[in-house]
Amino acid sequence: MGDSPRNRILDFLITFKDYDYSMSDIAENSGVGWSTLNLFWKDLEKYEIVKFTRNVGKAKMYKLNDSNPIVKKIMEMHWTIIKNQTHEQQKVSIEQ
Fold first, then answer.
1. Looking at the whole model, is its pTM more than 0.85?
2. Cα(43)–Cα(21) distance, integer angstroms
3. Which residue of 3, 14, 58, 82 is most buried, as measured by CB atoms within 10 A?
4. 16-27 in b/e burial notation, b at 16+ Cβ within 10 A?
5. Are 30 and 9 in contact (CB under 8 A)?
6. Calpha distance 96→75 (Å, rounded)
7. Smallest Cα–Cα separation from 68: which of 43, 50, 53?
8. What are the pLDDT digits (tens) for 23-64?
């Protein structure tokens, strides 16, 4: 789906969906600058892609809102792409 900052954020949040993170942690672990994340973070909250979970000190913690139907479809597509890419890589390895 491309290597955009938004896709890297979603990839990270989907891969580690069982945990919550601060915005700084999300930016760092997904390889996206904090200021870039901040540009579209309000949209992620507005469309309930992410949800607030708790405060840790001054940091607000968030996680992927996997009860959102849109997020469910995004996750389904994400894992389908990963599965297909893995199968293609296995075919190439076997053929070599």
1. no
2. 17
3. 14
4. beeebbbbebbb
5. yes
6. 32
7. 50
8. 999 999 999 999 999 999 999 999 999 999 999 999 999 999
- Which of 53, 46, 44 minimizes the C-alpha distance to 20? 53
For 73, left (φ over 0), alpha (ψ -120 to 50), or beta? alpha
Characterise 94 by phi-psi region: left (phi > 0), alpha (psi -120 to 50), beta (else).
alpha
Structure tokens at 59: 């940091």
Dist. CA 6–CA 42, nearest whole Å: 12
Residue 19, both tokens: 């945990």
Residue boundaries of the structural domains of the chain: 5-95
Name the DSSP class of 11: H
